[in-house]
Amino acid sequence: MGKSADLPDLTVRGGLVALESGLQAVDLGIRDGRIVAIGEPGMLPRGGEVVDAKGLHVLPGLVDAHVHVNLALGEFTTRDSFAEASLAAAYGGTTTIVDFAVPGEKETPRDAIERRKEEAAGECYVDYSFHVTVARSLPEEVLAQLPPLIAEGFPTVKAFTVYRDLVMIEIGEVRTLMATLAGHGGLILVHAETASIIERAIAQCVSAGETSPAYHPVSRPPIAELDTVRSVIGFAEETRCPVFFVHLSTGAAPELLRDAHAKGLPVYGETCPQYLILDESLYAEDDGERFVCSPPVRSHGDRLRLWKGLANRSLQMVNTDHCCYDTKQKTLHRDFFPDLPNGLPGVETRLRLLLTEGYAKGRLDLRRLVELTAANPARLLGLYPRKGTIAVGSDADLVLVDLAREGTIRAADLHQATDYTPYEGRPYKGDVVTTICRGVTVVHEGRSVGRRGHGRLLHRKIDHRELAAL
Ligand code: DUC
Ligand code: ZN
Ligand code: ZN
């Protein structure tokens, strides 16, 4: 039998829904993967499947703007596939992941995008897209590829100012890149660490025989981040290219962004759960290598200033920088920190951690939490209002959460393709019950009920009015 033209094929009933106007007890009518009606409880036309959200909060499916799937960087490649990473994301309430197309040695950004598209096709449980990445140098040929890539729906371009010979470009190349992107509707993502500061500090540690993981943060001081953030803010002033600073770790970085906002500059920043929750003293523990990421996690004072930056809007997003290394990879060079793989798994734990450390502790209200994890990443990446909000016409990407559910984070209970989590043994309060991507339930009560291949490649276009709303 054909479907009636007016009836929803799915109704989410009885929940407290995070609309842009605030939390409201409403039902959601969904048809063909989109929200078609928002109505008073019990008032929507009946038809199709019903998801009971009684006692739950209904949030927009989270958008993770910073995920590395199967990242090959130097000696190590992270362990997960697109299927594994996207399913772990769904377990964590995330319905869109944006990965990086990093060119291999003989590849251009165009080659990397085409390869990445093939690798992900038919694999993902949730929707996905890619950031273009410029790696190692910026020849004319590469610059010429960017405007067509932006026009095709890949308007965000990543640059690293560190990891020499692997991916780094020079700071002058960052400036040129920004001038090109500004003229074509693009946005730059910057991994902000000044290579020369770090390289000298690493050399000093090594020559003093200080090579345990405890010296990782010593080799990457806060000034390495702040130096590059300052330079790139200067380029934003010159070029007006929008900037997304990834994984800000220092307490002073949000304050630099705040000063830039006062001048009307289009600069935006994320931090990640590890920088809000973990402490640099972990590097001196027996298993310090497990926490090695770059930039490193920092002091209690830095964490307090990052939380403040989220609350006062100096920072706009919390994404994960998910890098799924396992213990074997992490321990191989545990006596020589410069050779350790950098990065932490986290695509599955973001919402639990923020509900626990942010919402339950009174640092973030639910509206701000939704902005930081869904609406703002969608706005910045050119996905809003299709993603990141619960509104008529938006994709029916939803996460149903139980704010009272408590438990303990254990790697054994997670679905990330690794054998550890940096948050092992941490109590949580607030958890995902159901994740729905475009009207299809992907995860329900800890079970995978979705379909590999349901996730679609998203083409994106940056809307400068949405950036202005951040
Ligand atoms: N930082 C990490 O910690 N991992 C991957 C790349 C990066 O920039
Ligand atoms: Zn980075
Ligand atoms: Zn990253």
CATH architecture level-2 label of the largest domain: Alpha-Beta Barrel
Q: Which sheet architecture does the biggest sheet show?
A: 8 strands, parallel
Q: Number of helical runs?
A: 14
Q: In percent, how much strand structure appears in the residues?
A: 15-25%
Class per helix and strand makeup: alpha/beta
Share of helical residues? 25-40%
Overall strand count: 23
Report the uncertain regions: none
Ligand identities: dihydropyrimidine-2,4(1H,3H)-dione, zinc ion
The CATH superfamily of the largest domain bears the name Metal-dependent hydrolases
Query: Any idea how many domains?
Result: 2
How far apart the termini lie comes to 46 Å
Chain-averaged pLDDT: 97
Query: Reading side by side through the largest sheet, how are the strands ordered?
Result: 8-12-13-14-15-16-17-18
Topology-level CATH name of the largest domain: TIM Barrel
